[in-house]
Amino acid sequence: MQRPQGLPDGLLADMPKAELHLHLDGSLRPATALELARRRGLVTRETTARSMRRRLVAPPRCADQAELLRAFELPIALLQDEDALERSARELVLDVATDGTRYVEIRWAPALHTRDGLSVAQVIAAVAAGVAGGGTAASITARLIVTAMRSHEPADNVLVAEAAGRAADRGVVGFDLAGPEAAFPDPTAHRRAFDAARAAGLHVTLHAGEWGGAAQVRSSLRLDPERIAHGAAAIEDPALMAELTARGVTLDLCPTSEVQAGLYPAVAAHPLRALVQAGVPVTLSTDDRTVSSLTLVEEYRRAVHQAGLTPAQLWRVDRHALDAAFGDEHALAPLRAAFDRWAAENLALSAPG
User: Fold this and answer.
1) pTM of the model as a whole
2) Which residues are catalytic?
3) Which of 110, 223, 275, 276 has the greatest number of beta carbons closer than 10 A?
């Protein structure tokens, strides 16, 4: 596709960015994974960083979400101690900063990292320490979303939500639900966990629409989320799109990852542009930097060159992320002002489109 007119070279790299849908375990550096795997005796001396990368990166297009989720098995197995969790979290924030990202929300499921005896609270504390250290080193604002798993017992997810709430002073701002949607389609089984998260002052989101189409996205609204992770299938239902818009529910889209999950044949076929044109609030994220072998700069580039957004549309999507973010106003207000100053200096971004 020809480079869209009005998109100067380097604009995507220079643009200040905010990323709201990013998984820790899907973004482990291959070199770090190799070192951690050697410590645990999970690889031979002959294993290289290149071969480790091949193990961590999912196919460009899987059969479905269930196949894609298998790519997370190895990184989760490696992130079972405090040092590994803190290190990986710090490194992820540093990696995110190389995209020009100024604000990021990182999510992960603490209960998946307790196999070796850590408590959920210890897992949260380790990741929070790493994110704080990375944010200071890279001069970006980083916050955390604690994820519960659809496949876990509802009572256990209540405990996860309560632990997340107790860590609000360590940068935890949100609560999420994720996991195998086809096998566990009803998110309302975990309503008590969402109630506990809200009672603790956390914002709420959940994954929906990676299986089951628009009906699954609609089902997620029964939990009154502020945002929905993925949810592009809403394009199938005009009434649902109107409801999302009226309720101000933002879809945190990840086109490349959604292609990997078998939802679309290519980014060019993703309904990103149609959703934007319909006025549905959306953001753009990588989902998983390593599993998808992706940077946010590249995802933005694909949004323009393959999905068909104009530069002005891309900027509005990017800027909206700061309005949909779960962080506190003290952190977000100066970022919004800085983003707006940058846009004012790049008049092409304020053009209609």
Assistant:
1) 0.95
2) 210
3) 110
